[in-house]
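Q: I have 266 residues here and want to know how they pack in 3D. Can you give me a structure?
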Amino acid sequence: FFGIFSNLMPSGRRESPFNLNPSPMIRKKYTNYQLWRVFPTSSDDLSHLDDFRMSEEGSKVHWLKPPSLHGSSDVIIPPEYLESFKEFLKDGGIKFSVKLRNIQHAIRFENLRLNRRQQIETEILNGHPLTFYHFHPSKDIFAYYGHIKRTYPNFVELIPLGFSYNSKPLTIVKIATSKNLRKPGIFILSGTSPHMWLSIASSLHILNNLVTNAASNDTFGAMIRKFDWYILSLLNVDGYDHTMTYDRLWMKTRSQHLNENDGIFS
């Protein structure tokens, strides 16, 4: 997998190539946006939904998962399209349920931040700012990487892949308790979809359990030592930090590209 990433990631730190002088960003609000779960049950349902997705109005509705006969699909709907989308589903005989009536309310209480005193106490107690019961920005994750490298230098290695578009490090944490080159490896990847915070937190929790138990004499420790572990918790680091600060439901990277049709960047 290292060869794959070497083709995708720059080899050294560099500045973003485009200086667009953007205006200050404002945090996106999702007040009165709703989360609906849609249940297509036939190929006709899928065709009906796909036709809507390709329409101008359908482009304003955010599909967290494309329509499929292999399960439900979750859809985020702006308040101005609630009634029209409801009528569209009823016209097609497609069942749905409302899961959240105000997404902004859920976002507000999703990740209650530590105050400054709690942050200092956590870092003094643990040696790093991660709590494993809050969602943390990338700088806290990088600080944790440094902590486990210093604490477990005999079997933790930080493998740099390069830097993101916004010059943030892309790092694989390798856990290898021996020099056995024939030992099988397990690769854990998360953070491809930056709005899925739980997958990133879960991989960090796994990482913490691996490094704190790798030297133990119990069955768990023995299982850990049978493998070399490679964990990349934060592939889309730019997108992840953007979800933390500006747009909770952002799903892409933050790279900018030249649009050849009109000469602007998008």
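Q: Anything worth noting?
A: The two ends are 30 Å apart (CA to CA). The mean pLDDT is 86.
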